[in-house]
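Q: Here's a chain of 117 amino acids. Please give me its 3D structure as tokens.
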Amino acid sequence: MIRQTTLFALLVAAGLSLVLFSVKYQVQQLEAELTGIERGIVSEERAIHVLRAEWAHLNEPGRLRQLAEKHLGMGPVSARQMNSFDGLADRQPAATSDLQPVAARPADAGLNRGDKR
């Protein structure tokens, strides 16, 4: 009877050691994967930092002003280019026949069945 119990205990211990061995290598594999992902995150954060610095350089107002003058022939806005709102009232839209003033439309016009305000 003692020999059967001892044999059973040895088999259980061997089975548990195999399971522990398998779990150990799975954990090592997952840790390696996690390390790779963390390195990738750090790399992407560095790339984002570089891209933000490049964006700041490309959108620098002085640089944009020089490029606009060089390639587009643009310069600063002069006072004679400005107009008042009174001067804009003289202009009429090209095709006003199908347009209605907002006050003349019914309250529910233009709403679909699913739209809610």
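Q: Can you summarize the key feature?
A: The chain has three helices and no strands.
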